[in-house]
Specification:
It is a single chain. The protein has 22 helices and 10 strands. With 610 residues, it is α/β, with parallel strands linked by helices. The chain has 3 domains: 331 residues, ABC transporter transmembrane region fold, CATH 1.20.1560; 180 residues, Rossmann fold (3-Layer(aba) Sandwich), CATH 3.40.50; 75 residues, P-loop containing nucleotide triphosphate hydrolases (Rossmann fold, 3-Layer(aba) Sandwich). The protein has a 6-stranded mixed β-sheet with strand order 6-7-8-3-9-10, sandwiched between helices. Strands 2-1-4-5 form a 4-stranded antiparallel β-sheet, covered by helices on one side. α9 packs antiparallel against α12. Bound molecules: adenosine-5'-triphosphate. Adenosine-5'-triphosphate binds next to α14. Its main location: membrane. Keywords: ATP-binding, Membrane, Nucleotide-binding, Transmembrane, Transmembrane helix. It is a multi-pass membrane protein.
Length: 610
């Protein structure tokens, strides 16, 4: 219920004002060109009913051939000019104008994804809003582009209706109200179906999201391997057979409502037109109108029906646009808690490393039922190298997400140099961190651009030294275009395909390039070979020199070169100290270490490993 209210937060007029002001801002020339089509929309059909009237009157009045010829020439020339201009705008311009608007909306949508608070994108409610917003722009008939046609169309139709209404009103005062009443019935039926359709939008958006995922998954190179080796295609088939029928059922129900609406429209149109024609025929027989007038009125009645039909259709389209526009604006206007305006800056003069305190931090994911972090307390001194270890699901990555500002605590505080993170500006905060996450995501740009995060003015020497430090330079310099080689094969045909370990090294180089105050490495060696792993340990001091660092790893031996180790269990720190102290304590850390080293010892002694 609350969701529905939110969807319709703006009225149709407010949404039209929004779309028109955006359109004016992006393409004022296109807007003027689109509106210049309105006289053609009105005059072409109007001349279509005036021409027969003039011709029949000339003939029935016995006018000279000269008058007939002049009438025909004037009308034909005018019609020809209007048609040409109309075609030029409608087919030559409107498509490009609408597409331009759609692209601009797409840009706003993508920009929001890139800049909004992380929970807005990761939570399923945020995902749903994102999908719904996409329906405003994902094809030419969607609101973002269709609004161009609708606005121009409804203005032309309204003007045409006014002129035709004047003509049919002179037949009989009851004709126009009767025509309007019937069109209103058609419109109301359409609205009822729209409401029914609205009721299943959440369900259809969810199904679309799931089906989009299923369609996208087989095109993912990485998934391609699993799909083949493990015959996952059968599982996919199973998933398709769950979601496809559900989607088809939903669409079929929707189509049935629209079919009923079409039948109703057909019957009402027939009644409306039939009654008007009967009236006109009687007037001709009574001699109150000429045969020329008859054809004009005949055309005008049909014309009014057409204008009213057009208007009801345009109103439906505009209503559809309005619902989609509300959803689009809902997504764009999702509040961001972590903002730049009015926030403080941190004193980072002299590039001193920062100190970080977690003070009674609680955290629960937006859609989760239980806290992931529970009363988490720790302090990382400026320049300290801290290791965070724990079992799967203990909350290590969540802790990183909070520390680097992707999420905010749901309870307690995180202090950076004694300042509450919520008081700091977002850009300022993100500037502090370099993070190597477990998943490697690269943009379809060159290696150098990915490492530096800059399109042009990068320090190429620095890129090279970061690649060297990360152990990737040997591989990169052998590529035909070196550090200027493009990544991502989906967009770049000759893009470079890196192995899992190489991608991890590239992430490391990227983290090193950014002169951040805190370096966070979340399982940075998971995909590295033993040589590369060893090199990373050897150079860890150099990599993190002069910075505060947090190192997460399941290989406990790798955390020995850190100053201190925190052992995380069920979202809180249960043990803390250096390796020796934790081993002496004989707690969970010591147990995990023993289990792991036992494995290596057995291997080294040549005994079978269980
Ligand atoms: N986006 C999310 N929404 C809801 N719950 C989540 C989300 N991400 C993680 N969780 C849950 O939070 C808990 C901690 O996850 P987290 O990834 O922080 O653990 P971890 O210690 O890093 O685990 P691992 O060692 O396997 O990487 C898990 O139970 C996980 O299911």
């Amino acid at each position: 219920m609350e969701e529905k209210k939110k969807k319709l937060r703006y009225t149709t007029l407010q949404n039209l004002r929004y779309a028109l002001s955006k359109w004016w801002g992006w393409d004022s020339r296109g807007l003027v060109q689109a509106f210049s089509r309105i006289p053609c929309v009105v005059l072409i059909p109007l001349m279509g009913i005036l021409l027969p009237r003039e011709v029949i009157n000339c003939v029935t009045e016995g006018a000279a051939y000269g008058r007939l010829a002049v009438t025909l020439v004037i009308f034909t020339a005018l019609l020809c000019a209007l048609h040409m201009y109309d075609k030029y705008i409608a087919q030559g311009k409107l498509f490009a104008i609408g597409l331009k608007n759609r692209m601009n909306y797409m840009y706003l949508w993508a920009e929001k994804i890139f800049t909004t608070d992380f929970p807005n994108i990761e939570s399923s409610s945020g995902q749903r809003k994102k999908e719904k917003a996409l329906q405003f722009l994902y094809q030419s008939s969607a609101g973002g582009e269709a609004v161009v046609d609708c606005v121009v169309g409804i203005c032309g139709d309204a003007l045409g209706l006014i002129i035709y209404a004047g003509i049919v009103s002179s037949i009989h005062p009851a004709v126009l109200p009767a025509l309007v009443l019937m069109s209103a019935l058609i419109y109301i039926a359409g609205r009822i179906i729209k409401k029914l359709e609205l009721g299943i939008r959440d369900e259809s958006a969810d199904l679309e999201r799931k089906l989009n995922y299923l369609f996208a998954a087989p095109t993912d190179f990485a998934a391609g391997k699993d799909l083949r080796i493990y015959k996952i295609s059968r599982w996919f088939g199973g998933l398709f057979s769950i979601y496809f029928p559900a989607m088809i059922k939903l669409c079929a129900r929707n189509e049935l409502w629209w079919f009923a609406d079409d039948v109703l429209q057909g019957i009402l149109n027939l009644l409306r037109d039939g009654a008007c024609y009967l009236l006109l025929i009687r007037m001709v027989l009574e001699g109150s109108i000429t045969p020329g007038d008859f054809t004009m009125y005949f055309g005008a009645v049909a014309g009014v029906s057409q204008w009213l039909n057009n208007i009801t259709k345009q109103v439906e389209k505009i209503n559809r646009f309005s619902v989609q526009c509300c959803e689009f604006r809902d997504f764009l206007e999702m509040p961001d808690g972590f903002v730049n305006d009015g926030k403080e800056c941190l004193d980072t003069e002299g590039n001193r490393p920062v100190d970080i305190t977690f003070e009674h931090v609680f955290f629960r994911y937006p859609d989760a039922e239980a806290d992931t972090l529970r009363d988490l307390n720790f302090h990382i001194r400026a320049g300290e190298k801290l290791a965070l270890v724990g079992l799967n699901g203990a909350g290590k990555t969540t802790c990183v997400k909070l520390m680097c500002g992707l999420y905010h605590p749901t309870g307690g505080r995180i202090l950076i140099n004694g300042k509450d993170m919520s008081k700091l500006s977002r850009d300022e905060y993100y500037r502090l961190f370099s993070v190597v996450f477990q998943e490697a995501n690269f943009m379809p740009f060159t290696i150098a651009q990915n490492v530096s995060g800059a399109m042009e003015d990068m320090d190429r020497e620095r890129v090279k030294s970061c690649l060297e430090l990360a152990g990737l330079w040997d591989r990169v310099q052998k590529l035909p275009y070196g550090m200027d080689s493009l990544l991502n094969r989906e967009l770049n045909e000759d893009g470079v395909e890196l192995s899992g370990g190489e991608r991890q090294k590239l992430l490391l180089a990227k983290a090193l390039y950014k002169k951040a105050f805190v370096v966070i490495l979340d399982e940075p060696t998971a995909a590295l070979d033993p040589i590369a792993e060893n090199e990373l340990y050897q150079s860890y001091g150099e990599l993190t020199e002069g910075r505060t660092s947090l190192y997460i790893s399941h290989r406990l031996s790798s955390t020995r070169f850190c100053d201190r180790i925190l052992f995380l269990e069920n979202g809180r720190v249960t043990e803390t100290g250096n390796h020796e102290a934790l081993m002496a304590a004989k707690g969970a850390y010591a147990h995990m270490y023993e289990v792991q080293s036992h494995y290596y010892k057995k291997k080294a002694e040549g005994r079978p490993v269980v």
